[in-house]
């Protein structure tokens, strides 16, 4: 039997505020365990939560970018459950009134555009981090209380590939709105998958399983593909898919049962008594939208229609916000849009890949790259010389202008200077003139080589060739 996959995704994203959602503790990653905490984070009695305004602003940014309806009455709830990672025994979250509803993301998969509808976006606080050992566990409360947004799709995704495309697009939005670093490997963006299958043509949902805490987009796709196949095999054998929570084993590349899930957990939500409802200022909500940074899709349109880049190059540029930001800054110094793009996607990217670095970790600056490209355009250096300048710059961090002067790379493009040098070479190489007259094209290469030798490689190749051909023809016609 042929089955259709029905998939919904829940994405948790940590916001990069300076302090936590309801306390003044710093938001950090990689610090010594239990050093970035205070009484509120530890759930000690008598401490009151104070809402982080920047966290609310960041949530609204994402709501706008996802085309959502924004609830301007901000309400929080308590989600009650007792678990080791929850110091207070409850989590402050939003249940009945999420800040955002009814959004969407458009994705492109295999040449087709599909709209993934988003049911809700709500704010909450993160839990602490657990470290499990053979016979004990340790808790790091540094993460407890970090601002989170949870983004929940409707079950509109139909394949692992579509899920991966959605997550790529969502991650791009989180980066371009500048609310999160969205690093799945560090846990600042985490994904849970709900998946069921049903016969094609059926409008009835199958029994779904949940796959928890996937830590990379590729693993999301692999987990979905494995789980869909597993469920198909169960049904084809006459079995029944059980409602359960599973995890993805990266080593075995398969999903593994964590626990059975007989029904929905009753978290006994009720209104958070320590945070009264807050009426957001409508003008503030609108201003956040007006101040949104330019998103990736908007940059693609600008790169294609204003800068004349190809669709492929435009999409590659915006795939990395760092590279796209670097491009945006570079073209402020040099308006050679295509050449700057070529350098970023060519020599610069090759260097980054070879050295496993990001562009912000190198000694290259937008101003320096702009100078290199402009020097090529102004015939100050050749493309070949520019590569040498680039290599030197990446090691020393020197201004390209200084490198060119120190290495004596400045091209000779003045026709009057080149005419004198070319005539000197022709005067001492009569045989090459006769060889050219006899149709031996290699004579041109030899003469150009002699000119380059005389100018220590600084003669402008294009101008040199043009002048050499002109002088050769004049000498032959005078014979």
Q: Can you give a write-up of this model?
A:
There is one protein chain. The chain is α+β, with helices and mostly antiparallel strands. It contains 15 helices and 16 strands. A nine-stranded mixed beta sheet has the order 2-6-7-10-1-11-12-13-14. The protein has a three-stranded antiparallel beta sheet with strand order 5-4-15, with no helix packed on it. It has a two-stranded antiparallel ribbon with strand order 3-16. Strand 12, helix 3 and strand 13 form a beta-alpha-beta unit. It is elongated. The N and C termini lie far apart (88 Å). The mean pLDDT is 92.
Give the gist of this structure.
By secondary structure, the protein is of the alpha+beta class. It has helices at residues 53-65, 160-176, 217-236, 282-290, 296-305, 311-319, 321-330, 337-355, 366-377, 383-396, 400-406, 415-427, 430-437, 442-454, 461-478; strands at residues 3-14, 69-70, 73-74, 77-80, 90-93, 100-109, 112-125, 129-132, 137-140, 147-153, 189-199, 209-214, 244-249, 254-260, 270-271, 278-279. The termini are far apart.
Question: What characteristics describe this protein?
Answer:
alpha+beta, 15 helices, 479 residues, nine-stranded mixed beta sheet, three-stranded antiparallel beta sheet
